[in-house]
Write a structure and sequence with these properties.
This protein has 148 residues and is α+β, with helices and mostly antiparallel strands. The protein has one domain (4-134): START domain (Alpha-D-Glucose-1,6-Bisphosphate, Chain A, domain 4), CATH 3.30.530. The protein has 2 helices and 7 strands; from the N terminus they run βαββββββα. Strands 1-7-6-5-4-3-2 form a 7-stranded antiparallel beta sheet, covered by helices on one side. Strand 3 and strand 4 form a beta hairpin.
Length: 148
């Protein structure tokens, strides 16, 4: 069976350079803390306010204003999924961001995990938009009711 892939896409009313720069270190709109910006060949730890431990993000490729590709833990603690952010200018002042994550085996357990991550990536894209366009942090207190 073919591995599962999830995709989300959203346009943000900001120039591509500004959107790309924010995605390299997504603080405070998506994560609580990062050990550094996403750079090709680097390993970065992302900490989320609602999760007890951070996640290791292994950056595979960064192409300025075009692409960020990294791997991070799938959820079983053993294997990694690939995440890609693709940035495209819709106009000089609007950027379309596409986010995809792939690598889950095709099973009920991993389909459910992929759906949760798909929701998370859409939340990330919406949070990026709200933060850049309006200065609003959508993630603040968004997940306090959840137990991980």
């Amino acid at each position: 069976m073919k591995p599962i892939r999830v995709n989300v896409e959203l346009s943000i009313a900001k120039p591509i350079k500004e959107v790309f720069r924010a995605a390299l270190t997504p603080i405070p709109f998506f994560i609580k803390k990062a050990s550094g910006p996403l750079e090709t060949g680097k390993k970065v730890v992302w900490e989320f306010a609602e999760l007890p431990n951070g996640f290791s993000v292994e950056v595979r490729k960064v192409v300025p204003q075009k692409l960020v590709r990294f791997e991070w833990p799938r959820g079983d603690g053993k294997t990694m999924n690939t995440v890609e952010f693709i940035f495209k200018p819709f106009s000089k002042t609007i950027t379309t961001v596409s986010i995809s994550e792939y690598g889950w085996p095709d099973s009920k357990k991993w389909r459910e995990a992929s759906y949760r991550n798909c929701m998370g990536w859409m939340h990330m894209a919406c949070s990026l938009k709200a933060y850049l366009e309006y200065g609003v942090n959508l993630r603040k207190n968004a997940f306090v009711h959840m137990k991980f």
